[in-house]
Write a structure and sequence with these properties.
Strand content: 5-15%
EC number: 2.4.2.18
Structural class: alpha/beta
GO molecular function: anthranilate phosphoribosyltransferase activity; magnesium ion binding
CATH class of the largest domain: Alpha Beta
Radius of gyration: 19 Å
Family: In the C-terminal section; belongs to the anthranilate phosphoribosyltransferase family.
Distance between the termini: 53 Å
Cofactor: Mg(2+)
CATH architecture of the largest domain: 3-Layer(aba) Sandwich
Number of helices: 15
Protein name: Anthranilate phosphoribosyltransferase
Helix content: 40-55%
């Protein structure tokens, strides 16, 4: 049966059928009514691992991709969908990770669920979002960091955007962004909005070719929180579940309210203060924990705790801020 008809009939798709259907969506072959029907049917039934993986494959096949030689190549990314007041933890962490010697290719977009999306913050920091994709690749090679603005890499999403906007509810596309990195990142720190997605995402990135990943739900955050975190770790082809508290890696606990931010300009001030080593406290600790997790999963350090220590050293040195300023000049040049 045609994959479109299967979905509309409530049947599940194989990975290959999902890939083919996404190819048709990306090519603009579905009418708005058909596309809305697919998105609503999937939302009501719930997407399977095979469908999520196949859809991600179809999106990447239609994307403007880049290839870089830097390995490992890490993406620190979240699904969004919760914590509207939270500070941009993962985006700030990227500069710490890259300054600590691990290349970063972060894929993301503007405001999704918070007051300041990752790329809203980057723009406020002075990084040009319209940087040509080839120039972004050059930056990853030269500086060890680059930001892949989804609108520049997924032009076929123009076929989907009006329907998504009119529906006004979360759809499968809200979870596909973190799985469709156009630089084919090899390692991930990936935050999800519900613990129900932990193993699904770990399995999906494995099927999509990732070498290792930490998928985290921070009990109300699609990031690491300074409280109990639930994780699914992909390593050497196997997936294990466990919990992690800040105390286990030498950090004090904090509350959600202590991790809040503001508008993009306000968050830019916060990010610069953290990266310069000037700001101390919970927001810095959350950045250190996230960066420490990236150091660990990329093989830079043998444990998350040692990764946190390295992240703190990078923050104290101000190397993250120096890298930020270099990237600003690079994208403005």
């Amino acid at each position: 049966m045609d994959p479109l008809k299967k979905v509309l009939s409530g049947e599940q798709l194989s990975q290959e059928e999902a890939r083919a259907l996404m190819g048709r969506i990306m090519a603009g072959e579905l009418t708005p009514a058909q596309m809305a029907g697919v998105l609503v049917a999937l939302r009501v039934r719930g997407e399977t691992l095979e469908e999520i993986t196949g859809f991600a494959e179809g999106m990447r096949e239609a994307a403007v991709t880049i290839r870089v030689s830097r390995k490992p190549l890490v993406d620190i990314v979240g699904t969004g969908g919760i914590a509207p007041e939270a500070f941009n933890i993962s985006t700030t962490s990227c500069f710490v990770v890259a300054a600590g010697g691990v290349a970063v290719a972060k894929h993301g977009n503007r405001l999704a669920s918070s007051r300041s999306g990752s790329f809203d913050l980057l723009e406020a920091l002075g990084i040009r979002l319209d940087t040509p994709v080839e120039r972004v690749a050059e930056g990853i090679e030269a500086l060890g960091i680059g930001f892949l603005f989804a609108r520049n890499h997924h032009p076929a999403m123009r076929h989907v955007a009006p329907v998504r906007a009119e529906l006004g509810v979360r759809t499968v596309f809200n979870i596909l962004g973190p799985l469709t990195n156009p630089a084919y990142a090899s390692h991930y720190v990936l935050g999800v909005y519900t613990p129900a997605l932990l193993e699904t995402f770990a399995n999906a990135v494995r099927k999509l070719g990732a070498e290792a990943a930490l998928v985290v739900h921070g009990d109300g955050l699609d990031d690491f929180g300074l409280w109990n975190n639930q994780l699914a770790e992909l390593h050497n082809g196997s997936i294990r579940r466990y919990a992690l508290t800040p105390g286990e890696v030498g950090l004090p606990a904090a509350t959600y309210e202590q991790l809040t931010g503001g508008t993009p300009p306000e968050n830019a001030v916060i990010a610069r203060a953290i990266l310069s080593g000037q700001e101390r406290g919970p927001r810095r600790d959350a950045v250190a924990l996230t960066a420490g997790a990236a150091f660990y999963i990329s093989g830079r350090t043998p444990t998350i705790a040692q990764g946190v220590t390295l992240a703190q050293e990078v923050l104290d040195s101000g190397a993250g801020l120096e890298l930020l300023e270099r990237l600003v000049r690079f994208t403005q040049g």
